[in-house]
Structure formats: structure tokens, C-alpha cells
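User: These chains co-purify. Model them together.
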Amino acid sequence: MLTIGREIVDAIVAHARRDHPDEACGIVAGPIGSDLPLRHVPMDNAERSPTFYRFDSTEQLRVWNEMDDRDEEPIVIYHSHTATEAAPSPTDVAIAGYPDSHYLLVSTREPESAEIRSFRIVDRTVTEEPVRIVDASVDPAAVTTYMFGQSPTTVDYECSA
Amino acid sequence: MAIEVRIPTILRSYTGGAKAVEGTGDTIADLLTDLDSRYAGLRGRLITEQGTLHRFVNVYVNDEDVRFLGALDAKLNDGDAVTILPAVAGGAFAFAAAAALAATR
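Assistant: Joint model of the two components:
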């Protein structure tokens, strides 16, 4: 299961809407081993394409070095599909190189509602997982408190599989 | 001549779990051959059967993408740092094109 703050989801959807009809992409970093996506980093789609995305290699190294300095890892790797469902394409699966990350997909094909789904992709095997969106205060550190200390309002997106 | 090479998680099965290893070589191609002599199979994950760098692997020398430095012919000097990162890419394009890409792995 992916547990993620509503503000981060809103920011990812806003990024996807902004770049529509091109695909948008980025990561959400978090402390190594925490499984907590806390720091949203929108990335450039070097392809600027409605059907393909690729992190700019120079920007990717800068962001990855930043994570190293902060003892973080890419908890979530996201991109949008702008005309199809929020599920990994064969291309996504063939290229996926981060077995420890949640692959979050957003579909912006409907103008009023965004479809959000999350997957693990390990050795070309795709497993869908539920997404639990957690309401949190503006302070990202408070996400932890809300998730483990209190009873937050949650929305569970169940897997269709 | 020692070059430090940072290994991404997905390739650490080849390095016994090590996040960074040392190697030698005057070019990236030489370095990968040297590494493969100790970490068998690593080179095959980075180089295609045609002998070029895989399209979805990024290799950097001192923070510069080797694609801007001559790719596998990029020159190395003692003390250089090499980083290997899987590219992050994909998208909703045609199945046939995806299958062709997958076949290059």
C-alpha cells in the first residue's frame, strides 16, 4: 500500500494538469527505509511529449545527489498518462529500474476528475497496490504524527484487481 | 588508476550489495570490462549486444552525462567518480514500439 499526503497528491495532479496534454513526471522523496513520501520534486519531461516521458539526465543526477545528501530515496516515481488509463504501459514496465519505488500514475484524460493508481514494478512484474490518501497539516513532518498518532480522515482507493 | 563507481540498487546483486566499487580504465568501456572481471554480468546490464550504452541507463563522469563526453569512449582520469543510474522513462505509447524497446534490453 502507498500512504501519501493529500497535499502532495494535489500538487502532483496540479503538475499533471499544468503539463497536459504532454506527460508530466517527477518524484516524491522520503527518508531511506521510511516508505514516507514527503518531499515533492516535479521534474522536467525531457521528451515534452503526450505519449512519452523521460527525466532529463542532468536534472536526475542533481536530484539524486540531493537525496543522497539528505539520506532520502525516491519513495514515489510518478508520471501522467494524458489520453489513457492510469496503469503502466508495456513501455513503462520494460524500462522501470527502481524496484523499491512506488510507481504512481495519474490520468488526466477526464478534465474534471483525476484517476490515481499505484504499482510496484519488479523484474517486469507489475503489482497494483491500494493508495491511501491522508489529510495532513501544511507541515510535512506532521504527516507522520497524523498517520501513526491520530485517526486521520482517509480515502482508500481499492485495487480493481 | 582508481576510479570510484557508484552502483544503483537494482545492480547491487552483481557487487555483493556494495553501493560503490573501485575500478580502473582509460575509458568508460575499459572500466566496464575491468568491473565485469570481478562483478560478472554487470557489463551486460549496461551495454547492448551491439556494443553501445543501453538507452535507459545513465552513466556520469564527475556529474556529466557520458553521452556528452563520447559515450563509452569518454576518457577517465585517476580519482574520477563514475555514477550509474537507471534512467526514469516510459509513457503511453504503442505496444509495438514498447516491445521493440524491451527487445534491446
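The longest helix of chain B spans residues 28-38.
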